[in-house]
Amino acid sequence: MTNRNTKGHHPGKEAAGRAAAELVKDGSIVGLGTGSTTAYAIKALGEKVKKGLDIRAVVTSYQSEMLAIQAGIPLTSLAENPVLDIAIDGADEVDSNLNVVKGGGGAHFREKVVSLSANKFIVVVDDSKISDTISMAIPLEVLPCARELVQQQVAQMGGKASIRPASRKDGPVISDNGNFIMDAAFGEIPNPQEFADKLSNVVGIVEHGIFTNTDKVYIGYKDGKIELRE
Amino acid sequence: MTNRNTKGHHPGKEAAGRAAAELVKDGSIVGLGTGSTTAYAIKALGEKVKKGLDIRAVVTSYQSEMLAIQAGIPLTSLAENPVLDIAIDGADEVDSNLNVVKGGGGAHFREKVVSLSANKFIVVVDDSKISDTISMAIPLEVLPCARELVQQQVAQMGGKASIRPASRKDGPVISDNGNFIMDAAFGEIPNPQEFADKLSNVVGIVEHGIFTNTDKVYIGYKDGKIELRE
Amino acid sequence: MTNRNTKGHHPGKEAAGRAAAELVKDGSIVGLGTGSTTAYAIKALGEKVKKGLDIRAVVTSYQSEMLAIQAGIPLTSLAENPVLDIAIDGADEVDSNLNVVKGGGGAHFREKVVSLSANKFIVVVDDSKISDTISMAIPLEVLPCARELVQQQVAQMGGKASIRPASRKDGPVISDNGNFIMDAAFGEIPNPQEFADKLSNVVGIVEHGIFTNTDKVYIGYKDGKIELRE
Amino acid sequence: MTNRNTKGHHPGKEAAGRAAAELVKDGSIVGLGTGSTTAYAIKALGEKVKKGLDIRAVVTSYQSEMLAIQAGIPLTSLAENPVLDIAIDGADEVDSNLNVVKGGGGAHFREKVVSLSANKFIVVVDDSKISDTISMAIPLEVLPCARELVQQQVAQMGGKASIRPASRKDGPVISDNGNFIMDAAFGEIPNPQEFADKLSNVVGIVEHGIFTNTDKVYIGYKDGKIELRE
Asked: Is the pLDDT of residue C73 over 70?
């Protein structure tokens, strides 16, 4: 299965993914995020499992489930293991205070649940995702019948929410939970925590893509170097 | 189809439902809630439609869809008509400031979306639902994989969230949107607006049952009398 | 969480459940069905796991997931383990050729997927479920928008399909997959395999409750005795 | 919202869509399919509605809902109007006996329900969709947990089923009903009715893309000419 942005090898993404995998201790329960950089972390963890690392993983999407199974990582669930030792995930934008935006892959609801269930939340990205201030459109998972109400409320907040069209089915992208994915452009968001609280109060949004609970970010550069921010 | 609490005729519920139906003007788009008192409003509106009232309705659940069709009320949707003139719905508890708790019927997510899409939100209840302060367990619609995380966060807020068991299927009640219904007991909630904001920030809750946007409440008494609060 | 028909101890159900649990070999991947008799099998398997039995289980519903976790049985999934060694499940009716009807608990879709993924499918019931010929209404999982079309097609087959009303939410019972549960009364069904094929061709039915792949049935009597049919 | 294959004007698609729209009589309830050729029919119907045609439409997907609303066609539902006068839809392949394959847009489940609810089912396509014998991979809507079981059963039928990857979310395409879309390659299918029956018996398939109930096909050529087959 080919996927969103898994085109070609990126040494920095791989280095960031591998660095995060190094943080996983024997005996851990690990949350596995979605996306191309996380895929490198999953592959690296799979190699360690083959060498004897004893872990079990909770996935955040059908994509990460498939990758984890392929990599040979035994799976569990939040129902079975409600508290995770660590969660590793990618991001679509990271600001200077480690606030991140997720949801380009449409999986941010389960990703947020998993990240908050973990004692440590590690983000892995390439350097193209770094910015001073969040400014990308915020992915929203939305109850289908509430799309107009969400657009109205987002407009009242000064933004513009659009339904994300699919390209391999007709109509909108549907999330793994059966809801719409919308993208809400607000321009720069200098105060992500406050803004996230406001978005949480918008009725009809099942979950938005702002995460304010990151512990560490590994940034991979094209030359394969990585930088750690925490 | 028999249903939750539709046992026997209740003159007060009927009077409250009929009073609300009287507010609906010709040419309106009307939101139709769920539950036994609202069912009287739907029936009353159906009688008016037969006599020539020109309305179209947006339903909040499969139950209200079935009742509206039976009553002969033409239906539309929020996609087609994003702004409603009026919405009529029941409630499970009403406090002295017209804050209400809904979700006993598991339909509070769409009910909230519909109520907020309406210019006026009218609540109809019998007098057993009235209290000074909200104190019933708050119904929550919850992403299935987030049930443990929601229980933890509710516990941190001083409450106790339980999965609502079904009785005509095995396992939990599943909402019309495919999610779990949980009930979170917090005791008295003297400040529902503030509390609602906090609940909205609990990750994993798709929507909670506190509504703070009621315009009028019709209360029906067993003797068939009604009282209006606004 | 209390549930559909788990009222009081039934020595025959327990004996049947325990007998099925005895069939599970060390190292197996086991499918775990839904319902009150299967619950005894899950409990028995949990006791064996505590004594060292090495198994992993695939659940068929949120109910069996919760029971298995409570019993301490490690879980896996069909994605991770597509072939099961054995599946154990209850039934609502068993005919003289070991054809069974399931879906009283609304979980027959995943139950059928799990039973067909298993090398052996063991059914456990109490003697009240035994009959010469299938005659109970057949549970159907139905796409919500197809309910009328299903009713028409069922009527053409000589049956009558009704939506199953919920009692702890308003409106119909919703399955764990977000669909309607309907019950289709046909009277006696002397040729279940042929009839099952016809039902599979009814457009709008996601899955019906007739299973024709049972290997063994353990029948428990009120005095605690069991009978094996195969 | 841009979408799958709505790139550039196609005179033949438009002519086919318009021809189908001409069949719709005043007072009809019309089923509206999904896809680029149907979109022309929807637009043409919208123009007729503006000129006074009195119809109501049932949509088959979020896409056709959005297009119909944009075109100003009043909507209804199968719940409200279980029997349609006519349904118009596109197709991905049409054989010489008017058997068609649908599901390239992932909406074939609701499309099939709508087509079977209609007294006449009209297919509109461009000439690239015509073939002697069906040979494209058959789109399947599949319960997520049953994907492996479906792959096994499809393999036993001599085919190969693959999960359809999404490109604007991570992981598989999710249908409007929350299920997976898979594509099952079987090579030529000379006997579509018999084959459709077999596919309907595959447990885990919610619905497959073979339709054998077409009444008329309008084929549009690049020069704007159309051909009618019935």
From this structure: yes
**D152 at the C interface (CB within 8 A)?**
yes
Domain spans, chain B: 11-127+212-224, 138-208
- Largest pairwise CA distance in chain C: 54
**Chain A interface disruption, residue of D32, D64, D169, most A CBs within 10 A:** D169
Instruction: Indicate the CATH number of C11-131+212-225 among 1.10.3720.10, 2.60.120.1440, 3.40.50.1360, 3.30.70.3270.
Output: 3.40.50.1360
- Identify the CATH class of A11-130+212-229: alpha beta
3.40.710.10, 3.40.50.1360, 3.20.20.30, 3.40.50.1260: CATH of B11-127+212-224: 3.40.50.1360
**How far apart are the C-alpha atoms of B79 and B69, rounded to whole Å?**
19
Give the CA distances from residue C95 to residues A10, B210, C83, C111, C223, in Å, rounded to whole numbers and listed in that order: 61, 49, 27, 18, 22
Residues of D in contact with B63 (CB under 8 A): none
How confident is the model at residue B2, as a pLDDT?
42
Q: What is the mean pLDDT of residues A120-125?
A: 98
- Residue C27 CA to residue C221 CA, distance in Å, equals 31
Q: In the annotation, is D207 catalytic?
A: no
Q: How far is C193 from chain D (nearest CA, A)?
A: 11
C74, amino acid identity? P
Of B77, B147, B206, the CB nearest to A206: B206
Residue D2 has pLDDT above 50, yes or no: no
Do C107 and C89 form a contact (C-beta atoms < 8 A)?
no
Q: Any CB–CB contact under 8 A between B75 and chain D?
A: yes
Minimal Cβ distance to D69: which of B65, B75, B79: B79
Q: For the segment A40-65, what is each residue's pLDDT rounded down to a tens digit?
A: 999 999 999 999 999 999 999 999 99
Residue A18 has pLDDT above 70, yes or no: yes
Q: Which residues contact C194 (CB under 8 A, 6 or more apart)?
A: none
CATH topology of domain D11-128+212-225: Rossmann fold (3.40.50)
Does the pLDDT value for residue B1 go beyond 50?
no
- The answer to whether D113 faces chain C, any CB pair under 8 Å, is yes
The CA-atom distances, in angstroms, between C127 and each of B126, C130, C188, D26 are: 46, 6, 19, 59
The CATH number of the domain covering residues in D138-208: 3.30.70.260
Q: Which residue has the tokens 């509070």?
A: B108
Instruction: Give me the residue label for tokens 């949107």.
Output: B177
- CA A126, CA C168: separation in Å to the nearest integer? 49
Identify the residue among A63, A170, A176 best suited for mutation to test binding to D, counting D beta carbons within 10 A and taking the highest: A170
In this predicted complex, what is the ipTM? 0.95
Chain A residue numbers touching D144 (CB-CB < 8 A): 62
- D100 contact C CB<8A: no
Any D CB within 8 A of B178 CB: yes
A80–C76 CB contact, under 8 Å: no
Nearest CA in chain D to B57: D76
Partner residue facing D143 (CB), from C82, C113, C116 = C113
- Enter the tokens of residue D212: 């054998």
Nearest by CB: B76 against D75, D79, D178? D75
Please tell me whether D167 is known to bind a ligand: no
Q: Does D163 touch chain A (CB under 8 A)?
A: yes
Helix or strand holding residue D110 (H, E): helix D108-116
pLDDT in tens, B203-223: 999 999 999 999 999 999 999
pLDDT exceeds cutoff 70 at C6: no
Give D117-145 pLDDT, tens digit per residue.
999 999 999 999 999 999 999 999 999 99
Over the stretch B31-59, which tens digit does the pLDDT of each residue have?
999 989 999 999 999 999 999 999 999 99
The annotated binding site of B for substrate is made up of: 34-37, 89-92, 102-105, 129
